[in-house]
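User: New here, any thoughts?
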Amino acid sequence: MTGDFPTTSGGSDTAPNTGHTPAERDAVRKADHVRLASEQHAEPRGHDFDFVRPMNHALAAGNRAEVDLAVHGRVLHWGVPLYINAMTGGTQHTGTINRALARAARETGVPIASGSTGILHREPAAIPSFRVLREANPDGFVLANINPNLSPAQARRSVEILEADALQVHLNPAQEIVMPEGDRDFTRWSDNLAAIVEAVGVPVIAKEVGAGMSRGTVTALRDLGVAAVDVSGRGGTDFTAIESDRRTDGGMGYLANWGQSAPEGLLDAADCGVDLLASGGVRHPLDVVRALALGALAVGVAGGFLRTLLTDGEVALVTKIETWLHQIGDIMTLVGARTPAELRQTDLLITGPVREFCELRGIDAGAYARRSGR
């Protein structure tokens, strides 16, 4: 999922007539995002993760009792390699969703990110819909989320309101271009991001919202001082498609599926000297293990968890997350990895379009199949 359902400051002649006041338009847009994102996850879909296959070594399996799911990055240290990625907030309805997500995070021990908090700087009435993430999860790891147009003072205020442990800054030019109300000037993002990093006092995580990150972008973000980068690739919630559906001019559906997938982003940005997170199209625990084996510190899920919450309820979501965490440990045992970090020595067979991507980008896909020396 976008990881944020962003609220933007731009404008466009293609904006649908969905409300009279800015608050009403925000509410309609966010309701559209939740509904359309959930619909996209109604049926299983193929994904580039299917072209990353762990090699089976029958004598390499380990002891399940020795598996430790904790992850330790350069800055981030989490008890599990899974987190609930940014989704929503800003209205009474989305506040109800956030409360349920926060309780699920509390019960399972996974970190959780808010949706884009930009709206709370224009509409103070939106604050409770975000603040609930901390109120319902007082001891958990909470990430606030903003767009890169906010001022450093506003970014710091978002962190303060949520008592956030880290800050996500979402970079989503493709979504903004297609969004009827979206921004059209992205030239200030780098400078403003550097100022935000300097101002907020917590680790900053830069993330895409479903179009992926390139090696050059990840390197530039590292140099701006971010603590981690979520490559957030295509294959999950497609916000270019969602924003296209919201337009009144025939849409820009031809931009659906824009960008790189999470596996491609992880491969492209390997060894960039910054912690990588992965999201976008994560369907089950095997996809989590695949992403970890490709170099992700941890893996975020949004749309799939949202779908479970909306269709089956909060208890079902808690059960799903608990099941995922247990099965991640099971798969780690199968390949002989005692920690998520040890998965980076797992032999991976990279095939199909992901292998073609590697060839085009000068990445030795074959080396991943020979990492363990077995």
User: Anything to note?
Assistant: Residues 1-17 have pLDDT under 50 and may be disordered.
